[in-house]
Amino acid sequence: MTIAPIMMPTPPVAPELSGLRGITGVAGAEQPAKVDLAESFGKALQDAHAAEHRATDAAERFAKGDPRMGIHEVVIASEKANIAVRYATTLKNKALEAYRELMATQV
User: Fold this and answer.
1) For burial by CB atoms within 10 Å, which of 17, 33, 41, 68 has the most?
2) Is-contact 48 87, C-beta < 8 A?
3) In whole angstroms, what is the distance from residue 47 CA to residue 80 CA?
C-alpha cells in the first residue's frame, strides 16, 4: 500500500512580499523585479514635493477661514509631508552608505 504525500497548500503571499520569492531559493520561483535607483529617488522626491504642496495648500486654506478645512486636516497633511521628506532623505542616506561600503571593499 502506497501512501500519497500530504500536499500543503501554499499560503498566499502578500503583494509587497512577492518579489522576495527569488531569495528563498525555491525551484521555479520567479525572479525578483529589478529596482531602478534613479526611478526610486525620483518618485520619492516627487511624492515629497506633492505632499509639501498639499500641506501648504491646507494651511493656507485654514488660515483664510475655509470652513471645510479643519486644523486636524492641516496637521495630518503636514505630518504626511514630514514623513515623505524623511523617507526621501533616508533613501538617499542608505544609498550613500551602500556606495561608501562598496568603495571601501578591498578587491
Assistant:
1) 41
2) yes
3) 10
